[in-house]
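Batch job 17 of 40 flagged for manual review because the log was empty.
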Amino acid sequence: MHIYNLSKWQHEHRFHRADLHGERNTIRVILLTIAMMVIEIVAGLLFGSMALLADGWHMGTHAGALGITVFAYRYARRNADNPDYSFGTGKVGVLGGFSSAIVLLIVALVMGIESLQRILSPVQIQFNAAIGVAILGLLVNIVSVFMLQGGNQHSHGNDADKTNHHDHNLRAAYFHVFADAMTSLLAIIALTTGKFFGWVWMDPVMGIVGSLVIVKWSYGLLRDTSTILLDRVANQETASAIRSAIEADTDNRVVDIHVWIIGSHQMSVILSIVTHFPKDPQHYKKLLTDFKNLAHVTVEINQSKDEPCLV
């Protein structure tokens, strides 16, 4: 009976994005958001500002969504080596981003409905006090945006590997606080024009404008995260480049290829190759070393019995 060192041949499945810095900053932003939420809701009720009240409830739902972000980070980290997950917990953060995008859509819908109701039934607004609270909210949101700014960044690999390296979980948190900052700014504009020009209707109109912008952001996030969750082909250019790299070697032909994302930016590929001159699987994997994001490569080799084209 032979005894093998199996660990030498086993794959690692830690494809989650370990971002403790992003997690800690998200917790700080949650605390800031909750504090500002209470201030804005109370002020909106006292001073009669729909834009201020909408922003307060908006921040409350965002605090809950940011909680999803933190949960996703911790769950992914604690279950990184859980064998129940075939490809690790890399998609937990993506699922968190998808969930947060749905919350954004709900927020936008509620804001739009409340703003329409306020157009039909306008109320008296205490502009000076409301403007002061809105400015404070904007400052808090700007600080939060800078704390989470890394969530909206991406980098690029070589020409053959152009996959966005988004942390979708942190990106969702960034969109939430950026949306907060935008609605605070719109509230300031609405309250200022209402005070100086008597345009009271600007308050609910800005609520509608804010809701439409949030819908656009949430749609983009839903599109990107759902693509990953449904294992859609990560990048057609990448798949074509992988095929070319394999077929440039002797008479190899790729008859089946699957490329999908298994983490925030890591990809997996399964290849089925037909060749007259089969080699060890490691040979074919070495042909793909330029693709830095390929964290999991599986190769099936089929030997053709037909007459070879090469000699």
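Reviewer: the log was empty due to a logging misconfiguration, but the result itself is present. The two ends are 41 Å apart (CA to CA). Unflagging and moving on to job 18.
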